[in-house]
Amino acid sequence: MTTSAKATLSADGQRLTLDIDARPREFAALWLRERAPDAETLDPLTGQRLIEAAELPLDLALEHAELSEDALALRFSDGHRVHFPLSELLDASRQGLDGADAADLVAPGRVLWDAQRAKPQHTSFAAAIDDDAALLEMLEGLHRDGFVVVSGVPAEEDGMQALMERVGPLRRTNWGGIADVKSVANAYDLTMTQRGLEPHTDNPYRDPIPGYIWLHCLTNAADGGDSTLADGYRAAQLLRERDPAAFDCLTRVSPGFRYRDETTWLESEGPLIELDNQGRIFRVRYSNRTERVEALPAEELARYYAARQAFYQLITSDELTLNLKLDPGQMLIMDNYRLLHGRRAFELAGGVRHLRQGYVDRDSTASRRLVLRQQLASKEEAA
């Protein structure tokens, strides 16, 4: 696994420094004790903790640490002994062998793109239905790029549902399950009109916000109506590079978002650029139609308006905007925490534009990807 490794304890034994290939990682003794991968600490079947971590002494220390092949032999001051695989420590540490560390702007596994570098994963609906490897390839592409294009979806109103059920349950909202996206009289939402839509993320007024958007094209013969996509992570990255003060402002100020109709009242809030606990971009929000910023002090609002404008100019720029027109039987699956999507205005004189849309949550999608990855890897090892 490694070319060189060294384990060193602090004077009080409460910290262990693991130096692998000249890249040090520090671990607290308490953390190592509560995460000890043995049957006394973790249930072998569920992986859930058997000991009460809050009852461990706060001055718990390591009395001995010794490297043994690909494991670390540890002895704690409470008498517990364990062999900790180095691979588990590397996976758990913030800085791994792939060069990613806590200072990275996005989590490992993502590829940021602009209009020139967008290379979406293309997947066959039939293959993803019948073949776990094809389904995993689709989900890996979705995780990596933030969107995939699926072809060969049955030209039926709920044609996407069979594939959706291979990933996770349909997220139902006040609009039902899979809903129409087409122009209607007396529209209750601007998506149901012929106007163009600015880049946006869906439903920031919900808690939780839907994780993935599934958009299936039944017919797209109207003049115009092309979809637009922009990588919100890339836009945030460029904003930090070009205007750090604007980036900081959009991570601090949390506007509200609201949706109301005769039967529904939804409100939530959050920054346009949300960071995780390692300072990496976790989620972007943008919904001009539903945003309602509070009456903050005038100077703070001035900073926010300027920062929002700078971000808007990026997500609407030719530099970042990918244009595509879905054909009947094609479907977009989009990461609603990352992708900003919109559309050009369209004219019904040229024909009908009818799409269907549904949501699948983030946790079930991630779970399906990780379980499939593990299952297929196990099959390859057994072959």
From TrEMBL:
UniProt cross-references to InterPro entries, sorted A to Z: AlphaKG_dependent_hydroxylases (IPR050411), GBBH-like_N (IPR010376), GBBH-like_N_sf (IPR038492), TauD-like_sf (IPR042098), TauD/TfdA-like (IPR003819)
Name of the top EC class for this enzyme: oxidoreductase
Molecular function (Gene Ontology), one example: trimethyllysine dioxygenase activity
Alphabetized UniProt keyword annotations: Dioxygenase, Iron, Metal-binding, Oxidoreductase
EC number(s) from the headed UniProt entry: 1.14.11.8
Keyword Lyase annotated: no
Domain TauD/TfdA-like per the UniProt entry, residue ranges: 127-359
All copies of domain Gamma-butyrobetaine hydroxylase-like N-terminal, residue ranges: 9-84
Matching Pfam families: GBBH-like_N, TauD
Function, in words: Converts trimethyllysine (TML) into hydroxytrimethyllysine (HTML).
Family: Belongs to the gamma-BBH/TMLD family.
Name the record gives this protein: trimethyllysine dioxygenase
Source organism: Onishia taeanensis
Phylogenetic lineage: Bacteria, Pseudomonadati, Pseudomonadota, Gammaproteobacteria, Oceanospirillales
